[in-house]
Fold:
Amino acid sequence: MQLQWSVCLLLSLVVGIQCYSTGAPASACSDIYPVGHLGTSQDLSTNPFQLSLSDFDQTYGGEIYYVPGQDYTLTLSGSGGEQFRGFLVQARAVADGFPVGTFIDGGDDQTLSSCDPPESAVTHTNSSLKTYLTLNWTAPLQGAGGINFL
Structure:
């Protein structure tokens, strides 16, 4: 009986770990919090990952400003060679927290998520280890003020 219980527990853990290996679920879109990782939040002072922004006009007080309709490149990477498996990135207006802009499907390791509005977020397509990824984002045609990437 002990062995059966152990095997059952092990199988349930394996299933739970692999549930989102092909991308973040739509339920993660509301707060961009990794589903299935409750109680394991990252200490921001030791966060080994960064999202680098290229070609953005300016940042002010942590907010990012852009040219409406322009394409931008973002790089998601680990410092010191840290690797990651999954991600979910979305741009949101500082004023109201609403998703802004669209992502462009950029390759084998990423896909547009099922967040609303469509194409407003990008997520992983597999659980392979990644050192960095290049993401392509198009700013909204109408200015939305400052934005943050989550």
